[in-house]
Recover the amino acids of this structure.
């Protein structure tokens, strides 16, 4: 940490441990020296929350901006934490008008951000498991991969749960396939005979009885994992919808045209946070409900650029 006066005279250069005593000592030192502005290379996290809680004004600077500014204070040399602290201090002292001061988030916003980050992590975990399931099927039975549209689709998971190996699907005929599709409310438009042809025409791996049993168990394990993750993701999406509707700015981010959203009814601009817009007018321009300057408009009056409906709360 580096602290200096308005004229550039350094008054404190110290290192604090990232624990409770260190954070308490850091905030106490900044308050004691009456530091008016704190620059840091991240916009959120435990340290930022503690600084804001101590009543300090915080500037969040992107690491690329700090890297670009190093040349202003030194011709060459390697990167060091002590020098980066000096660069951050100088940017806060001389260029603070170019950056936005962070505003403390409300408890409701923090809750929504925690939920959306958890959902994002679970979606990433599901993608990893689905990729493992795909790789496993490609090794000994690639037929089911071409039957349905998505690897995490409930109908494919149900099919693999019922027919996890070629031996299990040996007696599968048109009548059984038709009954399965009806039970799972299939709407893909392909006839049972065509799906069976796809399944039978795929190449088969040469595996022994013991290996086949092992790979069959792996498929069942991956299917169970994907189904568990699907259930948890849906639960989080329901909770996110509830939290957004209860949020004071929820009506801004609820859009009737968000039917394709992972959380229906919730649409907002990518890589933005609520506290980046101090008033509702610029906030309402971010969820796609009004035009974005310099962007082509889509039929709903919003930007045609693809937008992640959860990034506002997750960033």
């Amino acid at each position: 940490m580096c602290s200096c006066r308005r004229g550039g005279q350094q008054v404190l250069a110290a290192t604090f441990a990232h624990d409770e005593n260190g954070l308490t000592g850091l905030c106490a030192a900044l308050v004691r020296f009456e530091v008016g502005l704190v620059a840091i290379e991240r916009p959120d996290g435990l340290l930022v929350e503690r600084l804001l809680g101590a009543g300090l004004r915080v500037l969040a600077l992107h690491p690329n901006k700090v890297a670009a500014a190093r040349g202003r204070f030194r011709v060459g040399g390697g990167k060091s934490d002590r020098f980066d602290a000096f660069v951050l201090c100088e940017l806060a002292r001389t260029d603070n008008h170019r950056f936005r001061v962070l505003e403390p988030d409300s408890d409701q916003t923090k809750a929504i951000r925690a939920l959306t980050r958890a959902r994002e992590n679970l979606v990433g975990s599901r993608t990893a498991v689905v990729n493992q399931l795909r790789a496993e099927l490609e090794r000994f039975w690639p037929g089911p991969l071409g039957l349905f549209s998505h690897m995490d689709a409930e109908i494919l998971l149900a099919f693999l749960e019922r027919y996890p190996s070629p031996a299990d699907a040996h007696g599968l005929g048109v009548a059984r396939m038709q009954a399965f599709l009806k039970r799972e409310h299939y709407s893909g438009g392909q006839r049972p005979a065509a799906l069976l042809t796809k399944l039978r025409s795929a190449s088969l791996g040469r595996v022994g009885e013991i290996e086949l049993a092992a790979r069959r168990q792996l498929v069942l394990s991956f299917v169970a994992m994907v189904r568990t993750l699907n259930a948890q993701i849906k639960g989080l999406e329901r909770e996110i919808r509830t939290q957004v509707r209860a949020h004071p700015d929820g009506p801004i981010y609820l859009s009737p045209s968000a039917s394709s959203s992972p959380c229906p009814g919730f649409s907002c601009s990518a890589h933005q946070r609520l506290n980046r817009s101090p008033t509702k007018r610029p906030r309402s321009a971010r969820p796609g409900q009004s035009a974005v300057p310099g962007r082509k408009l889509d039929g709903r009056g919003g930007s045609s650029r693809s937008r992640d409906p959860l990034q506002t709360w997750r960033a």
User: Anything to note?
Assistant: Confidence is low (pLDDT under 50) at residues 264-276, 288-309.
